[in-house]
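Researcher: Next entry in the queue.
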Amino acid sequence: MNGGRTTGFQVSGHLHNTGQLLVFRADREGKTRVNITGGPLAYHYQFEEIYIHYGLQNGHGSEHRVNNYAFPAEIQVYGFNAELYHNMSEAQHKSQGLVAISLMVQLGDTPNPELRIITSAFNKVLYRGDKAQVRHLSLQALLPDTNGYMTYEGSTTYPGCWETAVWLILNKPIYITAQELYVLRRVMQGPDGTPKAPLANNARPLQGLHHRTIRTNIDFRKRPDAKCPSMAQDMRYRDDFFFPANTWRDDGSLSHNVV
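Model: Structure for this entry, 259 residues:
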C-alpha cells in the first residue's frame, strides 16, 4: 500500500479483553517484525497492536466518519517509530512516535479472509481478562485493496490520548458478516460472573479539527466514468471538517461523484 506499506511476514500474538477494548498485541518473543513505511511516513514504524472499536447497532461504532456516516466498526493498526524510539511505551509520548492505520469495517456477505483469523477468537474473549491466541496474521492481507488514503497528525483514541500519531484513513472498507458482528457484540466489560454491560459502543466522542491539516493522495480530477475506491461523498474528521470524495450507497457499493 502506497500510504503506509506493510512489510514482513505473518505475526502471532494474543487478543485481549481489557474491559474497555478488544486489543490484539503482537508477541514480543517472536523474531518476526512487520514494518509500516511509505506514503506520508518519514520513518519506519514497527507494528505493535490492533484496536477494535464497534457499536451495538450498525449505524454506530467507528471513530472516524465519512459524510457523517458511522460504520459498524473500525479497526486501528498501531505501530511505533522504530528509528527514533525503543518501544511503544516510549514512542507514544514523543513527536512522530506512532502511526495509526484506520480500517473502516462494513457489513457484507463476503468478509475479509484475514479478518476471520481475528473474529474466530471472539468467543474466547467474552469477559474482561480473557485472552486468546491469534496466529499467522498477515497485516498486508488485512488491508483493503486500495492505495487511496487521507492522513493527518492527531492523537491516540485510547486512554492517554497522546498527540503523537500520524493517522492514515484508508479509502475503502473491509467487510465483516452479520454472524461475526453478533459474536463481537456478545463480548462483555466485566469478568465471568459479573459481566456488566456489553463492551460495544467504545468509540471516542467526535473531536474538533483544531486547525489540523488533512492531506490525501486521491485525485478528484478523474473522469466521471473512472473507477474509484473512495467510500463517500465527504470525508469527515471527528467534528466539522468535510473532505470531498465519492458517493457511498446504502447497499455498500461504491460510485464516483465528480467534484
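Model: The chain has one domain: 5-219.
Researcher: Noted, moving on.
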